[in-house]
Amino acid sequence: MAATNTTKTGQPFDRDVLDSLLRRTGFYMPSFEIYGGEKGLYDYGPPLTALQSNFVDLWRKHFVLREKMLEVDTTIITPEPVFITSGHVAKFADFMSKDPKTGEIFRTDHLIKQVLGARLKADQDARGQTIEVEKPDEPQKKKKIKDVKIEKLDDAVAQEYNETLAKLDNYDGEGFNELIKKFDIKGPTSGVDLDPPKPFNLMFQTYIGPSADKPNGYLRPETAQGQFLNFQKLLEFNKQKMPFASASIGKSFRNEISPRQGLLRVREFLMAEIEHYVDPESGKKHEKFEDVKDVKLTLLNRHTQLAGSEKTEVMTVGDAVSNKVIDNETLGYFIVRIQDFLLKLGIDPSKLRFRQHMANEMAHYAADCWDAELFGSFGWIECVGCADRSAYDLTVHMKKTGAPLVVRENLPEPRKFKEYQVDMNKKKLGPKFRKDAKAVENAVEDLSQDLREKLSLELKDSGKITIDTPNIGNGKTELDKDLITIEQREVTQHIREYTPNVIEPSFGIGRILYHLLEHVFWTRSSESQDEPSARNVLSIPPLIAPIKVLIVPLSNHLDFKPFLRHLTSLLDEMDVANSIDDSSASIGKRYSRNDELGTPFGITVDFQTVKDKTITLRERDSTKQVRASQEDICAAIESLVRGGCRNLQVKR
Amino acid sequence: MAATNTTKTGQPFDRDVLDSLLRRTGFYMPSFEIYGGEKGLYDYGPPLTALQSNFVDLWRKHFVLREKMLEVDTTIITPEPVFITSGHVAKFADFMSKDPKTGEIFRTDHLIKQVLGARLKADQDARGQTIEVEKPDEPQKKKKIKDVKIEKLDDAVAQEYNETLAKLDNYDGEGFNELIKKFDIKGPTSGVDLDPPKPFNLMFQTYIGPSADKPNGYLRPETAQGQFLNFQKLLEFNKQKMPFASASIGKSFRNEISPRQGLLRVREFLMAEIEHYVDPESGKKHEKFEDVKDVKLTLLNRHTQLAGSEKTEVMTVGDAVSNKVIDNETLGYFIVRIQDFLLKLGIDPSKLRFRQHMANEMAHYAADCWDAELFGSFGWIECVGCADRSAYDLTVHMKKTGAPLVVRENLPEPRKFKEYQVDMNKKKLGPKFRKDAKAVENAVEDLSQDLREKLSLELKDSGKITIDTPNIGNGKTELDKDLITIEQREVTQHIREYTPNVIEPSFGIGRILYHLLEHVFWTRSSESQDEPSARNVLSIPPLIAPIKVLIVPLSNHLDFKPFLRHLTSLLDEMDVANSIDDSSASIGKRYSRNDELGTPFGITVDFQTVKDKTITLRERDSTKQVRASQEDICAAIESLVRGGCRNLQVKR
After folding, report:
1. Are A77 and A99 in the same domain?
2. B265 and B118 together in one domain
3. d(CA B95, CA B200)
4. Angstrom distance (rounded) from CA B389 to CA B506
5. CB contact, 8 Å: A472 with chain B?
6. pLDDT band per the 50, 70, 90 thresholds, residue A527
7. Cα–Cα distance between A617 and A609 in angstroms, integer?
């Protein structure tokens, strides 16, 4: 399915028009604007804040309540050791290149992409024209690039550029540095050689407590770790039953090198994450898979992408799992639930696809990953990740802390088997290795059964063995038979112990909301005289619309006031968000203003109301109007606003 | 009204019993516990997370929707200049004292309080016994204090100690240092002299962007500043209408020197704040005051406290405002709305009072402040502040940035008056004062009318004037008549421009939830045989209870399964949070477990259900049971769960 950049009514989509609408009507604004702004930080004004809280409410009902998930609220501030263990301190980084002359800092991969892209474009144009590239530090301003290479390229060079761009995700700092030298990439505004690329960790640092003299903590880049650290308690809360899921909604942070693309790449953002814990030996079956197996999905798998294509396939999730396109039922079930949720929100189904990650683009912890991508004016953008994190996180935290982040399951029948067991003489171990004793012990415990078998023979033969101990002395440690025994023994197991695998649906709420706004935006050409001729509309579904009802008196006539008060209190009692616009603008103008805010219903109070207490209800998308009693109309609105939640059938 | 530390059924309240219940049932846990924990950070488990999200939902309905407030979501990360302007960089600090021998850091005021308190206690006991004080860094552990002064005190000394303690909030670093020397206070574990007290800013620092080589931002300590910075846009969104309120719910942070008291003094916490903007010349009237004027409040005013008493008075808010106990209607209206909200939540009305701040304890920005204090096992604790921040914040940000954070109002009649106006010759000003020119200009503009009158005469007489310019040279600047003219002129004003005052109700959500749990906790002695004899109950109101319904099958009999599935999906459709407990424990045990979780309703599926499809509904507080059809009982539950929100009448 090829998504096209048009509104739902087939008009070409114009991002500038939507963006100016969103800023003018207070959906969002750059944070600290009166102080000159701060890149990558945005404040949500009243309409977007309400939309976001309705999103969160719906998400909780759709996932937490329906799936009986265990929602937790863990802290943003996280001490450093947690992220050392999780791998984020070492690996959660982008490379940056500094221009020594101007002091500008560029995200290295973006810079290479821009420069090679610009050269390829110049080549295509086959003219030595000046190309404009975005200066990452100031996304609003375009800067002319100084690049000696703006000319027609050899075919071989052009091909090399294209190949390099295709696999840019595979490079590290050294690799980037070689590319920069090889392709003679200079500072884009200065023309001088750049400093070699350096990794920049994307976590915000902070100082916890009054005695910290260097940063000792981070703002979390995801809510996941807080959930993993509580695994044991959550399993207990769930009365030791597997599988189960935890969930969390909260702010996370990434200190982006050069934030851009408005609400899509920001430094502070709201996430909703689910960690579904599953027995790896269960085949990752899901008990409700049968209920969803006929739901169709639009998929772009890894193999298609490897073949250089973006062609999606539509298939049922049942077929996708049985054909191993999607690895297992649990992953498939969540992909369906994610799709259901996005469509309930009002996402355009033709602008939704699920794309499997290539091996080289997965996060360091992931074993498989499908993204829900939404199409908009920035192209296809990842908005929900659905990753199989395998047992990675629980394993590393358990290893580091010794906390039993495992499931213990009574076996229906005891299991008997033979295994090589190691006993160490701890009385002698301590005095001999002192501070390294624990590390030696760990290294021994980590020995595989195969190695243990080999070492047991060696120990019998020579009375001593040598094992690898990477962090101690020369990396080898000798142990003699006074210190260690290795024997094969028969074991009877009554309890099975295993580390669960984790399937993680992870929602970037701001990205989804931004795409929703693109998808529901269109322009109406009105034929009615008292409404302006071309009007922007946000067709946000009533279920999540920021304000549900606008109450509009025909004029400022005093006779209307009691009706306004009555109607607003009637709706307030129903917890239906409403507002009154008694300004002097024409009714058409007042409705038009609220079409831009996505308000689905309008109520008019006029002289007929004063006579017979009836009011007019106007529906935003059709502009159709009906007249009825105040009570009937308010009840109808309540049911439309709530009904969306209970009865909406997802259609594809 | 003297609050007593008993449960609602009159039993003595035992904090240890509640605390162990809350930890055992997963309400909360110390964050990063498997890494040894991190002081002042707690994770909320499933029951408390659900309770918190129900709190937020109710808060939004009660305040944002009903009062048509403009909710915004602004960023946590804040660049330094904002908090320099707001005064937080200079003033949002506590003093800390370091023990040079042990490296321990103490919050200075707490240390003085503890030591003097310990001496006074020793004096009372009239024996030189060893006193135990809390060591702030390790609140769990009590340490013996080394203090040479443990003996009977002279009457004059004891009186001086008491007086010092009463006014401890008035001291700064120098003052604390003098107290420490005067009273010979030493390091409590080492007995050596402490380093002089140093201010420790309570904001967490961070580094924004890749080029920051020193901290250039903070995590906000309140949501308020984000709201103030958007004032202009919010006023525009409100179509220039005054008064109006903005609101925000989000995490804030305080890097406490020594966190303690569990959930009450933490480093990361959820706040809900309202900034109500009001015309200072309106007398701060409120249009809905008439509706609430007969509501009774329990008040502890400033005068009573100055007289050394804690005696509260019960009076209507109407009387309180007309007697000027509460300064104005707007403050009074919000105090009533805060009380309504707290009672809806389930706060015990006998454990709620409103206490006016003393002049010396108000934050640097506040003009008046009433706290809603809740009584619990830690005494009376501030849980909601209701401060009049006057025009402080908007004024300082406007002055710093030049952004017009003001209201402009068309006057019904033009206003004519005379005023002294200043004109400066900017062409000469710049070259003469260079970088200081702007500062000189600002100093001139800030001159009062009285001063302008005086200076205009001086300028006429001597041809030059001298004005105060504190930050330039010697603090005085001379200006001659080439540079400045001052004249009285007649002005006609068509527009009135003013900076609104701000009334700020600010909710510490964790503190309120903790007190709620204390207030709804009690122990039932059951006479029924199949229920354990003494059982803990959390009588959380259905409206905000984490889980509303527990579904319990009599046994694991297969015939019950379809009913469990039907009931859970019936309740799911109604968005009523429910869970199934089909474990093998007795029904009494299963209910008892859920009484501890505050689940208000239980449904039993038994053999009668299989016969006639009826089920039993059990109510948590009374343990009364009724039998009816599945549909009737689910509908009744839905209405009880929602009805609380719409129909609950607040009684005092």
Report:
1. no
2. no
3. 6
4. 12
5. no
6. low
7. 12
